[in-house]
Specification:
Layout lengths: L1 E2 L3 E6 L10 E6 L6 E7 L6 E7 L2 E5 L10 E4 L8 E4 L6 E6 L10 E8 L14 E7 L3 E3 L12 E4 L9 E5 L2 E6 L4 E4 L11 E4 L5 E4 L12 E5 L4 E5 L10 E4 L5 E4 L8 H6 L5 E5 L4 E5 L5 E3 L2 E4 L5 E4 L2 E6 L2 E7 L3 E5 L4 E4 L14 E3 L5 E4 L2 E2 L10 E10 L4 E11 L3 E4 L5 E4 L2 E2 L6 E2 L3 E5 L4 E5 L10 E4 L5 E4 L5 E4 L2
Amino acid sequence: MQAQLPLSILATAACLCAQGDFDFDKVTPGTLGGTLTLSVENAPASMPLLTMVSVTAGPTPITLVDPADSRSVSVGIEVVSLWTFQVTSATGTSAMSVPLPNLPSVQGYVFHWQAATLPGATTLFDQISNPVTTHHVQVQTSAALPAALLSARAAATVCETPNRPGGGDFLLISGGTSEFFNFRTLDSEAGPAVNAPTALYAAATLNDGRVMFTGGLDLTGVTTTACEIYDPASNTFSAAAAMPGPRAGHAAATLQDGRVMVVGGTNNFTDLTTAIAGVSNSTFLYDPVADSWSNGPNIGGRRLVPGLTRLSTGLMLVSGGIEATVLFGIPIAVTSTDKAQRYDPATNSWSNVPDMPAGRAYHQDNQVTLANGNLMLSGGVLVPSLLNVANAASIADADIYDPVANTWQSTTMLHARTGHSATLLPSGEVVVCGGSEGLLTAAVGLDAVSIFDPANSTWTAIAPMVEVRIGHTARVLPDGSLVLLGPGTSGEAMHF
């Protein structure tokens, strides 16, 4: 079974060199047989404008055409016949529509664009724009993989094992078992024995490439302090020091200095009431060199299934989660919180950041660090209140945090989603696949796929997946394609 996806153009303002003298960017991506529209802003007014395009990247020294100009451009010179001239407006703007031939031979091409005004006072070129790269992408198929996984996998932890002899670049762990997926042969083989918990644990990749599993529910359903580390070099799991207290439904992430931080979660997951009553605001810190734990400073609020990530600045951000207010061991308030805090390892302290645009929980696996260093949180679960848990529903918003400006902005996805995948593509865009929408008690599974362009904060729907997927795993392969695995034994690939 194959679902044909459309031919499309994905364009990004790729800064292959220093920022240009004026702004050159795409306006509207095109399709083969249509047009690609590009725009120029902040250029010199009423001056001739040369638009250059090539299928190879520069740099190309301008001395090839003007010995007096020592600058370079980020385009090649093999398709000079496609270069065009026009004149900028009185306000220094220009727009151009480039026809895109409807030819299969064009698919897969990458074109490099740059513009320059002329003449200069002493050189041929006056000002030169930033470069733009357009990727002519055909997702040829959203096709089922020829081989199935050995076991059904939902919400699997994925370890990348590029140096394992014989291949098998991804190790999937879920349900107390593991298996390798080899993206070169598209088949699977059994992995090493797993002693790690089966559910509600948290995983963090150590700086040396090992992967640590913390807490969760053991094989009997009891919340545990047990921790385990997978070593790709030896292809084995081994026990690590136990946490200071049991945790399930917590979050874990690796600090810049190599330590692992664990935040929130509950000390008892026997049922919903005990889980809420046991929700914690404490943090634990693990030192992999000493194989030891210490208590960290408390976060602001008791959080179940929060988000935790290391920001591009090196600070840690805890976001959202199901916040519980407990009085004398009895939960009196439960809601998906919009609160967030930052942890500074240098001062060993938390500080408040502005509230998120929306409360959310269960979004730990849908955090994406964008190419500019901003953090994107997509979808998740909104629990309105303790008395309204039955109306818990998936969220349609995605929030983007700027760690430098300490600000949030929000964008609305094409679908409300939880249990979906959000993956950063080589283009800098984010592809969001599957999940479920609606009330959690009457959720509707999705096969929908959307692409988010951070450059202009727009969402675009592309053709759907082969089947509905909730709690699946997504990874970008070295060739730029996307592989989706689970939640059952099936998988599929999208070729970007």
